[in-house]
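worker-03 picked up job from queue 'complexes'. Input manifest follows; three sequence lines, order preserved.
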Amino acid sequence: MELRSAHFQPSVRAALFDPDLQEAMADNRRFAAHVREQVAASGSFQALRERARAVKDHTLAHLDHYLERYEAAAQARGIQVHWAATPEEAQQQVLAICRQAGARRVIKGKTMIGEEMGINAALAHANIERVETDLGEYILQLADELPSHINGPAIHKTLRQVQALFHQHHQGLGRERYLEDPAELLAEARRLLRGQFLAADVGITGANFLIAEDGTHVLVTNEGNGDLTSLLPPVRIVLASIEKVLPTLEDAGTHLQLLALSATGQPLTSYTSVYGGADSDGPEQCHVVLLDNGRSEMLAGAFRPMLRCIRCAACMDNCPVYNWVGGHAYGWIYPGPMGSVWTPNLAGLEDTRDLPNACTLNGRCKEVCPLQIPLPDMLRALREQQWQRQLTPAGTRLGLRLWAALARRPALYHRLTALLACVLKLAARGRGRLRRLPLAGAWTAERDLPAPQGATFQQRWQRQQKEKRQ
Amino acid sequence: MSISQTNPRVGLFVTCLVDLHRPSVGFAAVDLLEQAGCRVEVPQTQTCCGQPAYNSGAADPARALAKQLIAAFEHYDYLVAPSGSCLGMIKRHYPELLKDDPAWHSRALALAERSHELLSFLDETMAWQPTTAYPGSVTYHDGCSGLRELGIEQQPRRLLAGVVGLKLVEMAHAQTCCGFGGTFCLKYPDISARMASEKVANIRASGADTLLGGDLGCLLNISGRLTRLGQSVRVFHTAELLAGMTDAPAIGEGRST
Amino acid sequence: MTCSRAAILGKVRQALGRQPGDCVQPAPPPAAIVTVDGSDLEQRLRERLALTGVTLQTLASPDALAGAVAAYLAPLGFTHAVALAPGLAHERWQGVAVDVGGALPHHQVAVTRAFAAVAASGSLVFLAGPDHPPRSGFLPAHHLVVLSKARLVGRLEQLWPLVAGHPGEALHLVGGPSSTADIGGQLLYGAHGPRAVHVLLTP
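worker-03 finished. Artifact:
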């Protein structure tokens, strides 16, 4: 997927004034509050969280071992395991499998790794028809848009917009009515996509977890589209990044409970499925493509904790910034707090400069993260990398250097701050606040600047101490 | 060195915002600490804790300021500051910043151990109770650093419960960020303004006539949005109300209000 | 792509600070969460299932299955036979038209047996195999599930020992009818999978 994070600021402005998006994000805020209530009511969140973190940290510390175990166990089940260092390699592998199977039509479940791999564009380029089965992805396919959320990819679309899309794109299929009732829209989508499930040559899904002990993988959906995609076509391709491996099914159980609870407030996702390769009622061929694309680098340093991520989206759902600007502003596959750590790591710092900075470091994301990922610390670490590589804007660098130099000279600092306090107080002319201030347009555009009291604390304190001594 | 529990020596870190903008918060802190039985001193070599540099990724400048602050305060029984975010910096981030220098690292840890945010210090360490009255309805904004890095939530509320006549009404989403975020409000002012507007809406909906909080940055941000929207809620730092200083102009309030 | 495999594993090993020739046997992973949870399983399962609209009917014996299924079908007016999982073929099905085997696209109702159920999460557990073709739980609009009370466990952690003895094919944990909130944020049932799930609980 093309990286557009460099357009963050203009995208934000557009987002803030987009009434449809704002309506959709207000719904998301309400949904997130409901989920937090369910998490609190479950009573098991903390215990699950502690175990999950311990399991994940252990697995990451032995990732080579568990990847090899997974591969061996999967192969023993007749699954073909492919390794892709880059998205381009992954594309080639998927296309080779499709070519060999003579595939003309692919059905697909929602997979963010698929987005990373650029699989949609690759299939189009190879003239292989692709149909999205996740309803959110299907809506995006109609709208020709990119996902704005990792679990509900079309949450930025209001009901009105979905009605219009269905009407526009289903007309050619003999549907003249303008459907408004969500249940009718769903029934229409179900009918259309059911035919696609039954006629596809290849089914492509992601995987939530890969199980090292027995070579199975876990796939969760509420719609059941993941299962129809996995079971019906004769060829199954599973796309997964290397950090998704867990030691045992029991470990997956812990993570699955956290995932469902944190993502939607459910005890488990409606269809939680464990697949083990060519089944008697399933495909003839099973392939798993393992993608690295930067994870092995993240393993080495300060960003290893990010590899604990189970893609629950709790961080973005509870992030005030994400809920105001929506997912598209972040410019890539992963938005919100986790996206602001993943994107610079996977796509480079150069063109993602705003992402680690568009954050108040309020810490809510870390608070709700089921794997206790220290997101604010990692965003700060990215800001440090930007500083060291001179990617921080020149004005900021100069301002901070001056401030720090001044602050290290207390006597000079106290004199200059006394002057500043006096000047600002005079500028306010007794009104208590300033509506405008040179160089402070960013503050005063939508806020008054409260006026200082005039003398600094140090000034008054020193005066007081002198008077006491006399 | 044993700390005198009844008469400890407290180094007051007023914080750069209080020093520059609103000294009354510092004087309220002195007053309250003295009421609680502390001997308060204000080391002159204090300026800034280094958080703006640290949060912008400028680790070396931040480190220099951290060392300056540690040196200024480490010989007091306690360091107390009227700010959750500055205290979070000192307690949680100084040891991390200085982790590659063993000597400074242990000095940072030692200071962190003895550093406290003002309201939690008064409530938990000194078991101080308010002696003032306030005939108004108050709502409380929880600063993010204080809340999530230091667990400051109940302490200010317990103190306010002891103020005669004061009615505390909780606003919806009291714990949602107000949009200040240090340099965030300058770099992303449009997003910041939306967050501040939402905070203002929640304050209005609470029906309170007074807003309190423990961080001046948040309060300046919220006050600035309140007055731009023509709202008349009085904004004070919690310390000012507890010290009975609410007859003076509130944040953003002029002489002629 | 064996060169990519070597490259990726090489980078992973380097990131983990492995020395050449290191033979790594990881320490055992953290201990499992131990739960003992066996009280009121039927009631808790019923309550949990009700939250997603799954209905549960208690039967005195497997002999009552045919009657229960016939009663479920009567108001629906379907003309086709139900798809009956081979694992249930030995039960008595008088009065119910059945096709033994996996569900086909035209089947509107499937009847299958659940391997177990988890009360805390409201999950019906299906073990895929010749006795239970998994597509029967996804293709038809109505899924009738035969579940024995003896197969109820309290928490998910208690399921795994039961499953361990069956290293078979796919495992499906189903929490309710197929649902989505992708259309304007409203929760709707009957996305791609079943619209309705009904449990027949036998001793």
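worker-03 released lock.
Chain B has a mean pLDDT of 96.
The beta strands of chain B are 9-12, 39-41, 78-81, 115-117, 137-141, 167-168, 210-213, 234-237.
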